[in-house]
């Protein structure tokens, strides 16, 4: 069953049981507080308010049967999860267009209120170490969550202190550090295959071949050293060229 169909049934059951699809607050935080906080940040848009409200939901994760029972929606929710929570569960219409995430997730993420996480089926790590993975998710940043949950006489002061920090620069540095840790923690089968080709297969079965180029990481795809090696081999990549995982050159026949 598709996620949107499952959440539609969840909403219908809650209504049939005489309950509202969602309570008036999650973790003691209602939408009025979210409105107030986002108004201060000049981000008081209904989609962002409802997305933040969704990310407060402490009920079991929507990752499915394979998810640990200890994982909550608020611990890690994908773009699709948030889209269905807002559009179907909260509003009773269709899920939000996932392309709209630039409007209801990205603005708060850019200032550190929402952080990227990855759920590998057992644990949650920071960052999105696997490109376009269905396990890439989001959660509220701890400091921002504390602001939302702070008492009526404390949240404004807490928010002011949070704003006064150089949040964007400091948190981007932290995110970069955590992403590198996550990359090391999460097994990437494709990278393993590339490295096995270079370290095991080629030395044994392709004697005389020199590795000219390897594409097994994020960031700049062709480093300065790569460019020099490619130039020596008489090769140049254009922007629209397909990028190989591994490129080798036969040093005897000079063939690629």
Please outline the helices and strands.
Layout: H1 3-16, E1 25-26, E2 29-30, H2 31-40, H3 46-54, H4 79-90, H5 101-104, H6 106-110, E3 114-119, E4 124-126, E5 136-140, H7 142-149, H8 155-164, H9 167-185, H10 189-205, E6 209-214, H11 224-232, E7 246-250
Antiparallel strand pairs: 1-2, 3-4, 3-5, 6-7
Helix pairs in contact: 1-4, 2-3, 3-4, 7-8
Give structural notes.
The protein is mainly alpha-helical. The chain folds into 2 domains: 3-185, Arc Repressor Mutant, subunit A, CATH 1.10.10; 190-250, no CATH class. The chain has 11 helices and 7 strands. Helix 2 (31-40) packs across helix 3.
Number of domains: 2
Strand content: 5-15%
Q: Any guess at the CATH architecture of the largest domain?
A: Orthogonal Bundle
Q: At the third CATH level, what is the topology name of the largest domain?
A: Arc Repressor Mutant, subunit A
Average pLDDT number: 83
SS content category: mainly alpha
- Helix-strand sequence: HEEHHHHHEEEHHHHEHE
């Amino acid at each position: 069953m598709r996620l949107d169909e499952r959440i539609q049934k969840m909403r219908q059951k809650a209504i049939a049981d005489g309950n509202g699809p969602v309570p008036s607050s999650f973790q003691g935080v209602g939408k009025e507080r979210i409105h107030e906080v986002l108004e201060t940040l000049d981000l008081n848009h209904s989609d962002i308010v409802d997305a933040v409200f969704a990310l407060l939901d402490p009920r079991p994760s929507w990752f499915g049967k394979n998810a640990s029972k200890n994982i909550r929606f608020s611990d890690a929710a994908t773009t699709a999860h948030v889209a269905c929570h807002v559009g179907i569960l909260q509003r009773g219409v269709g899920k939000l267009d996932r392309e709209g995430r630039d409007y209801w997730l990205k603005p708060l993420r850019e200032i550190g209120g929402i952080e990227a996480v990855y759920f590998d089926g057992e644990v949650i790590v920071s960052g999105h170490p696997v490109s376009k993975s269905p396990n890439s998710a989001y959660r509220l940043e701890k400091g921002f969550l504390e602001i939302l949950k702070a008492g009526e006489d404390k949240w404004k002061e807490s928010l002011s202190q949070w704003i006064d920090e150089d949040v964007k620069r400091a948190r981007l540095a932290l995110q970069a550090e955590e992403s590198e840790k996550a990359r090391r923690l999460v097994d990437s089968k494709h990278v393993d295959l590339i490295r096995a080709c270079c370290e095991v297969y080629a030395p044994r079965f392709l004697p005389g071949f020199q590795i000219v180029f390897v594409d097994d990481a994020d960031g700049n795809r062709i480093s300065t050293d790569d460019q020099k090696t490619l130039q020596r081999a008489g090769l140049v990549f254009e922007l629209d060229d397909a990028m190989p995982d591994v490129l080798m050159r036969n040093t005897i026949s000079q063939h690629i």
